[in-house]
Structure formats: structure tokens, C-alpha cells
User: Fold these one by one.
Assistant:
Number 1:
Amino acid sequence: MKILHTADWHLGQRLYNGEQYREEEHNLFLRWLLDLLRNEPVDALLIAGDIFDTGYPPNFAIRQYYNFLNEARHLCRNIIITGGNHDAVATLNAPRDLLQTLQIHVIGGAAENIADEIVLINDANAQPIGVVAAVPFLRQTDIRSAVAGETYTEKLQQIKEGIKQHYRQVCDLMLPYRQQGLPLVAMGHLFAAGSETSDSEREIHIGNQAQVYVESFPAEFDYVALGHIHKPQIIAQKQHIRYCGSPIALSFSERQDPKQVVMVSFETPNNTPQIELRHIPAFRPLVRMIGSPHEIEQQINAFEVPDALLMPWVEIHLQLEQEQADWNERIKTMAIGKNMDILNIKILNLPQNRLANARPVDLNLSLREWNHQDIFAERCREAGYETPPRNLLQAFSEIVESCS
Ligand SMILES: [Mn+2]
């Protein structure tokens, strides 16, 4: 059996929640992926969560998704799609029955009957060649029941235990297939302990505290296809448990990360996974320039347009020695005619207490660059806390998570 592992597409995403939709980059990626499926056929395509960036994606993103599936189903016999923490279970599951008739399996949220998460992969002669545990992002309500008066630590422990049990149960149901010699594959959308994050993963499981340890995945799995973390990486030095990463850089912090999909073939007799990476071109370069106004001017003048299909997007981190007005406009003027779009200018070197002391400069710092935690921490400082109490931050994280 040969599979292709991808995840974290985030169709419909836009940078800074602004006007910069990623539609063109996603279109080019999906074209690239279809070409890959055409040139290197696989038995199953696995998409491990965060298909869409939001639970209620824009129509163009929904169109991209269906157009892709419509072409991909002629190139790949089995397509398995699981929900991520960004996906709304109901949105992904709505066309589930229709897609099932096309051999496209959608598991938007934890199945009521865990056996429904198991997908058998057949070859062209309808013979089973492998089996996949299509485990979606497990929400707190899927894996634990709230107990009044329990502590934060107890709650985390329950989540970790619940995830571990879920994988154990689904694996037990797959063991008969293993005895027949079929490779066992698991999918997951979670935060594995020790993984390296970027700026664009939304926190899950109470502020990312409930990290999943590698021991949570039963040893019988021949490969574990993970989503959620956008930087490709293996977990706990195990080559067969890995994040494939997002296909496009979803934040400037990912601008230098390799983007890739993973091809896995299982060799008989032990179903040892043979792993190969296929690198995705950077269709649109993301560039960050850091420095004083003078240094930024030099960097803009020296900028060489990379060999890419789409206009580069630039984020500037401006280091100001003192408060200076109109830098936004002056930098934007420097960039005219330079084959780049400056999306954002961030002012660095602000005094420690940004809100209290830095209002004149801070007007350039828009709210969309702040995450929930930053804003809450600032609010705590305003209320007189030098450092916000840990239990307050945790309670806040819980509220944010229950809203997302
Ligand atoms: Mn994601």
C-alpha cells in the first residue's frame, strides 16, 4: 500500500485577518498536488485536519475543496478527510453521505461508534491492502466528562488519558487486520509533546497544556499521520510518527520552513514504512525585513524578486530609536515600483508597558497582530497585576478554547 499524507490546508485563510486571501496560493498548491497524484499514484490520500481555516469558510474555499475532490477521485481510489480544530464538524460532515458514494471518507468529528473511524483501503481488485484509523481532532466533550470541583491538573490528565484510550480502542479493533498482514495507519490532529510550533496554530486543549505523549500511540501502528503543527517534523525521533506540515506558510514565522507532503509505502513482509518527501514550491514568497528606517530602505532597494509565480508579500519590523511620525507612508513610498507588496509594518523597540507609555507610536500596532493571551495580559497589567496570576491565565485560555 502507498499513501500520501497531507494536512493543515486552511483553505480560505487570509493573513492578519486582512484582505490578503490565500486563494491563488491554494489554487497553485492543489494543481501541484493533482499533478503529483497523476505522476505518482497512491492508494490513499490522507488529509489530517484543518481543511478549512474557519468553521464557516468563504464560498471560494468551498469551491476549491469540491473542485479538488472531483479531480482527485479519478486519480486516487481512497480519499480520507478528518476534521481539525479549525474545522466545524457540521460543515465537514454535511456532504459526508454524498462524498461516501465517491469513495471519499469524511470524519469531521469523533464518531459515536468508534468503529466508524476505521477505513479499509482496497486495491483496484477490491482486495484490502491496508487499514486507516481516521481519528479527527478530539474535542474535550468527546473524551472527557466534566467533573465538578476537579482541578486544572486533573482536567489535563483526563484529556491526555482520554486521547490515549481513544487510540488504544481504535487500534484494538484493527488488530484482526494486522493479523492478516495489513499495514495499520492512524491519523490525528493534536499537539504532540516536544513538537515545535509557529505563530499560526490555534491553541487546543486548554492552552496547549495537554500535550499528547508519543506513548499514546499504540506500537502496532505502522505509521501515524499527524496534523495541527505547521512545521514538518517527526515526534520523539520516531520516523513513522510525524507532522507533514502545512502546504503553504500560514504566517510569516513559517516563511523559511520547508513545505512538503509525505509519501509512504509499506514493504512486505513487516510493513516497514518507506518514507519519501515531496517538496512544495513556494508559490508566493513571504519576506520579513528588520531594521532601522535607513536599513529598511537599503533592504528594499537591494531586494531581488525571487523566482516565484506570485508577487512577494513583505512584512517589515521597524526599529525606531525614538517616536517618529509617518514612517508607514515613507516606507510604502520607498516600495513603489519594487515588485513587492508590503502587507504590514510593525514597530519594534516599544517601551515595556506598551499600552500605558507608547500610545503615540502604538497607533501603528493594530489589534490583529495581538493574540488573545497578549491582550488579556495587557488588560491584567492595566488592572494592576505586574504579572497576571497563572490560574487567571489558565481560566482565560479555557474560555477562549470553549469559544473557538
Ligand atoms: Mn492547522
Number 2:
Amino acid sequence: MSSIIEDELLSSSVIKDLEVLDFNYIPEDILHREEPLRFLAQMFKPLLSGISQNVVIRGPVGTGKTVMAKKFCISLVNLARKQGKTIEYVHINCRKRSKDAMVLLGILNHFDSRFPDRGFSVQEMLEVLRKQLKRRDAQLLVVLDEADALFQKKGSNLIYGLTRFSDESSMDKIPVSLLLISQKDVLSMLDSATLSTFKRSNEISLDKYSRDELFDIVQQRIDLAFHTGTVDDGCSDLISDIASEWGDARFAIELLWKAGISADHQHVDLVTPEHVRAAKAETYSIVTESKLCNLERHQLLTLHSIAKRLKKDGTAYVNTGDAEKTYAVTCEEYGEKPRSHTMFWNYLKEIESAGFVTLKQSGKGQLGTTQLISLPDIPAEIVSNKVEELLG
Ligand SMILES: Nc1ncnc2c1ncn2[C@@H]1O[C@H](COP(=O)(O)OP(=O)(O)OP(=O)(O)O)[C@@H](O)[C@H]1O
Ligand SMILES: [Mg+2]
């Protein structure tokens, strides 16, 4: 018994440095993001002269928003230090800290890890923060990552409270800069008083990674994380093909990591495309689930109808007419009124752009507007089970 345990624990690995495959790892080179990094540097340059700036980064999942922000802020802090200036940089994830008080506590913990987590109002915490900054003769740079979570519940005054530090005409002025990161348009969520401290031109929008960009990102991680010659050349091709559907670097790195683990579990010293396929099958259900949560009820009903139909007919495609009929039935099953034909088309287009289905023109013998719908990668079974869960 103990020998099995020891054999496994001590078995060799294709992976040289597991940490490199962790989502928090910051690579030396952030690939294919030269322009946005340059833009950040231009936007935040005034901080080196003690003038605060507010910037927004926006972009879809896994497009490097977080890693880029961290890389940039660390470089800025280091450069400022060389010039004898102190910029205190705090990175807050608002999905984890979704209230003003929790964000402020996170900021105060940067200065004092023992700052009590209760007993202070937001106003009092702002005062403590002001004193901390004053004492250190420091300016503050706060990154509010996944910032939309903070504005989901109405009434966040935090940004306003923080920007007041730099506003005040008194001698007590302390530059406080903000970098807001989100997949959504956070500026549209701000009230007018807060919005006035942001300029639209200070917003960077990141695009999904192309297949070739993902290829380079995957190749970089292979070189950093794996022993030489342990990853078959086909792996980076396959991973970037799969991940390019979403343009998501996190998904690509996750596939690479899981493929490596899968090779280790089989005690082989080469990661092959077959390991990637296994990793994909395993990962899809997780990724699908998190993306499904973003769909609205009627989009889910539409997707459910398609999956149901494909499963029942056992075919590769369902035409849009049949899908719409099934949609009407599905709506009834879930006690919903089917929406108009036009709305149904909108739902279809939306779930297509979210990557769940593909649409193509049907061949001869079909009506002009009829299209064929398919589920490109995910088994209909997985989709319908998850959707059923979400529809409740
Ligand atoms: N240009 C890049 N070069 C190297 N690695 C990258 C690059 N872009 C992203 N990555 C890696 O991909 C993963 C996802 O990136 P990141 O966490 O920055 O995405 P994100 O845009 O913040 O996504 P989300 O909206 O889900 O938070 C991380 O492991 C990151 O290191
Ligand atoms: Mg992020």
C-alpha cells in the first residue's frame, strides 16, 4: 500500500515548474499586448509628477486584463521608487470584495495586515487611509478588478470618496489613482458625480486573442513550465485551435496544464494531442457552465431547444424552423410565453456570438431564410443537462 503512495508521490513529471501554469503567475513577457501596455504607460505617466489618473480596461474573458494590469503597476511602482517617490499599489478583486467597506479593508490591510475587520465605518476607514498615505508621503494606485461586482448593488460611493483625496483644494491633497477592470462597460454603471472623474478616452478595450496569438502564449508556457522535449509539437496547435473559439488565454493555459497532469498520471514522458483532447473534454463542462450563467432565460430556452432536438434526432444539424417549434414547446414546459419570431432570431444570434452554436446557410430545397444550427464541440447531452439545472 505505502509503496503505491510513495511511487505516485515520487514519480517523475513532465512539468518542470508547476507555478508557471498557475493563473496568478506573471510572465516576464506579456505577449501581443505591446500597444495596450504602452497606452497604460502614457495614461499613468502623470503619476510620476504626482498627478492622479483614472483609467478603465475592458475586454472579454481571458484577454489578459489582470495580468497586464499587474505587470504594468509593478513596473510603475519600481520606476517611481528609483526616482525616490512612493506609489502604493493595491490590487483588489471586487468579485471577492463586493462592498465598499470590504474594498477599503483590503486597501488598509495593505498598510497594516492587523487592521480590525469590523468596527469602522467607510468614512472612518477613508480617514485612516488618508493618514497612512500622509505619513508615508505616498500616493495611492488602486486596481479594482472585476469592478462591475462593486456596482451591482446600487450605492457605491467608494470611487467618489477616493477621488476626493486628490480633488481637494486644501493642502492635504493626496493623489489617488484608479484602474478599473471589467468585462462589462463599467463607466455606464457609474453615477454622474463619479463618472465626472473619468474620461472616456482613458478606456482601453482589449480584443479576444487570435489563434496565432494564443499559439505564442501557449508556446511560451510550454517553454517555461515543461522539461525540454516533453510536449509534442501538435499540442500547441491543437490547444490554440480549441481556445481560439473564445479567444481566451486562461482556457488555453488550463488545457495545457491538464494535458500535462494527464500525461503524468499515465506515467508517460510525452504530452500528446490525445492528452489535450482528454483535457478538453474535462474542461468543457466547467467552462460551459460558467459561460451559461451569463445567458438570459430565453437564450437558455433557445439553446435548450436546440440541444434537445439534436439529441432526439441524433443529427448534426437542426434547421431554424424546427428549432423554433421546439422552442415554443420548451417555453410551455417552463411556464414561459414564447417570444416573437424576431426575438427568437435575436436569441439565436446571441448564443451564436457567445460561441454555443454555429449557424450556416442550408443547402437546396429549403426556404430562403432557413439556416442550419449545430453545436460545434460540446455534446448536446452536457448542454441540456446544465441548461436544465439553470432553468430550474
Ligand atoms: N498576453 C499574454 N501573454 C502571456 N500570458 C497571458 C497573456 N494574456 C493572458 N495570459 C495568461 O492567461 C491567463 C488569463 O489572463 P488574465 O487573468 O489576465 O485574463 P483576464 O482578462 O483578467 O480574464 P477575466 O476577465 O476572466 O478576469 C493568465 O494566466 C495570464 O497569465
Ligand atoms: Mg481578470
Number 3:
Amino acid sequence: MRSWQHTVVLDASRSEPLFLQLSEALQHDIRAGLLRPGTRLPGSRTLAGSLGIHRNTVLAGYGELIAQGWLCTRPAGGTFVARDLPPGATRVPRERIRSRLAAAPGFPLGPPIPTARIPDFPAGVLVVAKGAPDVRRMPAAELSRAYRRALARHGRSLLGYGDPRGHPRLRAALAEMLASTRALPASAETVFVTRGSQMALDLIARALLGPGDVVAVEGLGHPGAWAALRLTGASLVPVPVDAHGVNVAALASLVEQRPLRAIYLTPHHQFPTTSVLPAARRMALLELARQHRTVIIEDDYDHEFHYDGRPVLPLASRDEAGVVIYVGTLSKVLAPGLRIGYLVAPQAVIARITELRVATDLQGDQAHECAVAELFEDGDLVRHVRRMRRMYRSRRDALVEALRRHLGSAIHVAPAAGGMALWARTDPALDLDRWAELGVEHGVGFLPGRRYAFDGGPVHALRLGFTPLEEQELEEAASRMAAALRAMAPRSSHLRDASQSS
Ligand SMILES: Cc1ncc(COP(=O)(O)O)c(C=O)c1O
């Protein structure tokens, strides 16, 4: 790698000769690790020019350090930091070497930022903790061709400042997709592209909420969304979730007690339980929001992956009162690393969010957004979604089967009608924290259901993602889960059931 030109500061008003100041400054930077062994130093002419000193001064400074063993010259030309530095030889006092940034800030940090990160699992662990897509199948060649085409054809406009709402072609493509697959009457004017749906949640929260506002959230839900909502200073109130999603009757009694500014929900495949909110609850919810002028933030993070039964439309598709803000993402369809999400809202909300985005981030990555728009326009994305839906459905069935075979009555699983994970109920006597810990030791990563509980209390269930792994990997993951369970409870009656049924 070519080096940047190293900067030193000399002070002509000091009595110390400039060549000594130079050699001392370089020696300091070598000892502080700012100049690494083997680094090539600028030529004497170049350095003299940039420092405004005579070349002979640079040569004298370099010569001093060569004599002491800090620098060396090579036959092919050039002066380098020596690979083996002289032990201890220095004129720079140790206390004047500043080799690290300050260990702690010299100012108060303020209140802690709420965190919602999933822990990293060690390499080699089969991770079933996440409902993530299988990025090995992502149409990367198509995307890189689209990127190259976009830059070649529209580079000049794409590399400048652009529309903070997102590239117009991507907004139009998303609107068309939403209209045809979800009966959502969106247009390029009511779609706003973000860097992932997490940013959409943050922008919506900051545009509409503040301290003193009350927001209802699912009592078993998505900690990432709670973190974004909490940052506004709003108070979150959990609402119970049952086998059919959020309990709308409980929500109705909550709204009678105190004004609700917003409700954050995942109605399509409830996160984490995957249940689908029935039609009657949906209608009641929309009516409730209309009557109380409450915002519904509908997070439809994995809409594309519905396998059984009739398609279910988002709340936003039936919203005539303008109470729903719809949030979607390409993180599950393509890859989370691409950071493309979107929101759909009435134009006045879009205008507010546009101002907020300009103050935060100015705009998205236009070249990237334009390339992704091409994937929509060329049909690559439609084909990819169809292929992945079929594949994920088989993986869902494979994991259900493998869990039943390996884990017997320790967990109760039913195939989810849609989504990217199973919500597996467990025997209340099982210590899920310990099982998850032993799981990592046995090479499988999963999280206890408690992680999704608003109050952090015990939840006798696991959310097991099936989409990122091949069927044989899912089989292996289930077998490792059983091995971990055996290590925890060697004589468990659950596992006797499992061995009989396998
Ligand atoms: C329910 C839910 N909403 C939103 C997100 C955020 O996704 P992204 O910001 O990658 O679009 C996730 C990610 O896992 C999720 O599970």
C-alpha cells in the first residue's frame, strides 16, 4: 500500500536547530506507532518542499536517525523506518510520547444509549438465532452489473447531491411493487427510502414523538424498535401478545386510561412469535387509531415470505383515515448489509421526515439505490423472491422435522404460516439460558425467548431462524441443540421421547 505523506510540525522560533527538531519529531512518531517499521519516508526534496526548509536540513535530520538506527536506506532508493528499532536509544522523554488516544473522554457522557444488539457467536457456530436471509444466494452478479451500468450511464448525477427521499427510480419501483403485491396505493411521492428499516423507525420516532408521549408496543417484540422509540424520550407501554398477535382489547382499555400517541406493531408475522393478526383485530385496531388519532407504525419486515393460506394485506392497505405509517425493508429479501429500507406515509409526514433526514444524513447512496432500482425493473428481484420463498418454505419444514426428531417433547413446534423463524414453545422446567450457553459450546447459537420480553421476564419459548441455513445445516443445528440439552439434563424424559421417535 502506498503511504500518505507523513506530517511533522517544526518551529523556526525555537533555538533547537531544525534538523534536530525534524529527527526528534520523526523519532517520536516512530516510538508512538504513528510511523510503522518498514514505512517509506518522503524523499528529501518532497519533504523539504512541504516543510519549507532546505533539502540539506532534511538530509541532516534523516542522517541523524540513520546513524542511530531508527531509519535505513535501501539500495533501490528511499529512506525507510528500520524494521528492528534500536533498544531504548532516545532523546525524547518517555512521558512526551503520546501513543494512544485518551482512555476516557474528558467530559460527561450523559445517559446510556439503549442497546438491542444480538451478541456475536464464535466462528463455526451454526446460528439459528436470527431471521436473516441466506446471503449466499443473493444475486450479487446481477447487482454488481447493475451498479456498473448505473455509474457508467448516470455517474455524473448519481455522484452529486440528490433527493433526500431516495432515488426517484427506486421510489417508483417500490411503489409499483407495493401496489401490486400488497394493494397499497403508494406513489413515488409517498415512499421514502432509508438505510434499512431501522433508520425508518428512527426517523418516524424523531419526527413524531417526544418526552411525555406514550407509545404502545408488543409485550413480546422487537428490542431494536424499542431502542429507537426510547431515544425520543417517549414512554413505552407493553401490550400482551397471544397466539393471534397483539391483544387489541387490552390496547383498547389502555387507550381509555391515557392518551396514546403511537402504537408500534408487527401484524403480518408478529415478531418474535410469527403469528398473523386476524382480520377482526385488524379492523378493530384501525378503528381505535382513527377514533383516538393515534399513529400506527406498521413494521412489515418480512412480508414477502408467506407460505400457507391466503395472502394477508398490511393494515396500511386498508387505512382510509391516514393513521398508518408503513415500514418495509429489503434486508430480508436481499441482504441486510445493503441497508435499503423504506417507509410509506401521507405526504405531510414525508415532508417532515425529509427535513429530519437532511439534518441527519442529507441523503442516501444514490448510485446504490439506482442499481437496486434496476434489479426491480429487470425482474431480477421478483425472480429472486420467488426462488427464495420456495427454498425457505422447504427449510421451514426441514427444521420442524429435525427439531421433532432430535428434541422430542422438549419443544413444541408448528410450522409458521410465514416468516423466517419458528416460535418453539419449551417445557417451563427447562432453563433456557443454560441451554443456550451449552448450545454455543456444542456449536449452535440460539437465544432464550426472554430476550424479546419487554420486562425481560421468563418466556418459555425459543425463536429459531431457519432461512440462513441449508437443510443439512438445520439438521445438524437441531442435533447440536439435542447434544447441549443432553449435557444439561442427561436423563431428561424429553430426550427419551426424541430417541424413540427418531
Ligand atoms: C421486526 C424487525 N424490524 C426491523 C428490523 C430492521 O431491519 P433493517 O434495518 O435491516 O431493515 C429487523 C431486523 O432484524 C426486524 O427483525
